[in-house]
Design brief:
alpha+beta; binds the ligand CN(C)c1ccc2c(c1)CCN(c1cccc(-c3cc(Nc4ccc(C(=O)N5CCOCC5)cn4)c(=O)n(C)c3)c1CO)C2=O; 35% helix
Amino acid sequence: TSPCDRQAPATAGLSHDKWEIDPHELMLLEELGSGQFGVVRRGRWRGSIDVAVKMMKEGTMSEDDFIEEAKVMTKLQHTNLVQLYGVCSKNRPIFIVTEYMRHGSLLNYLRRHKQSLNSNQDLLLDMCIQVCKGMAYLERHNYIHRDLAARNCLVGSENTVKVADFGLARYVLDDQYTSSGGTKFPIKWAPPEVLNYTRFSSKSDVWAYGVLMWEVFTCGVLMWEVFTCGEMPYGRLKNSEVVEKVQKGIILEKPKGCDKEVYEIMKKCWHALPENRPSFRNFKEQLASVSQKLL
Ligand SMILES: CN(C)c1ccc2c(c1)CCN(c1cccc(-c3cc(Nc4ccc(C(=O)N5CCOCC5)cn4)c(=O)n(C)c3)c1CO)C2=O
C-alpha cells in the first residue's frame, strides 16, 4: 500500500488532529446558560477568538461516538451554521468549542425584541431565509439536524442568524429526550413519520423549519395586538393532544401578523407525506422571490 493509505499512528502526544484543541489555549469566561449536555461558557481561544465552550456533563452524551463525528462536523462550514472549531477530548469533562454568537438563541431574541421586530416583516423573513440557507447547506451534505427550532438557532451581530447544534441529538443519552414518548422530545416540531416511526430526514427538518417560521412570525403581530412573540406552537396543548392534531393533519393557524403569502409557503412544510414537502434548496428560491415582492 502507498504511504498515504497507512493510518497515521494515533499517538496522543503527537496527534495533529486539527479538530483537537489544546485546553491551555482556552480562557473560560462567564456562563452563557446550560443545555442538554450541561453548562456552556463564553471563552477566548488563542487570546483573541471569541468562542462558546460546552463542558460535557458526565453521563449526558455518548462521548466516543461524538468525538468520531466531530471530525465530520468541523468540515461543515457555512455563514449560516455555527462553526464547530474543535474539541478538547484528552481529558474529562470533554469541551466542545464553537463560534460565539453574542445575542444568544433566536427564540429569546424574538421575545426580547418583539416591539422592534413585530412591524418588521422584512427582517423576520430575512431571519427565516438565513436559517433556510444554513439548512440547504446541511441538506446538500446529507446532514440531518434532528432538532431544528428557534431555540436551537443563534443570533450574532447585525441580525445574523445561524443554525446551531445540528446532529447533536444523536449523542444525547437522556431517553426522555431521545424517545418520542419522552417528556423532552420536541413533539411540536415533529412530523407524522417521526412521531410514528422516528424516521428523521431532511424532509423532517423541513417540517420543523415550518414550525420555526411560525415561531418567528408569531413575532410579527401588529402594534395594537397583544404581543405573542416567539409563541409556543399549539399553545398550552399537551403533547398527546398535539400528536392527535398532527396525525389528523390539523396544522398551525396563520400567525396574526403574518403575510398571507408567507403563510402559504409555511404550509408547504407541513405536508403529511415527506416527499410532498419542498427541499430546502427550492424553498430558498421561493422565499427569495416572496421577499422581493415584500421589500
Ligand atoms: C442536542 N441538542 C439539540 C442541543 C444540545 C446542546 C445545546 C442545545 C441543543 C441548545 C442549547 N444549548 C446552549 C446552552 C447554553 C448556551 C448556548 C450558546 C449560547 C451562545 N451565546 C449566547 C450569548 C449571549 C447570551 C445571553 O446571556 N444573553 C442575555 C443578554 O442578552 C444577550 C443574550 C446567551 N448565549 C453561543 O454563542 N453559543 C455558541 C451557544 C447553547 C447553544 O449551543 C446547548 O448547549
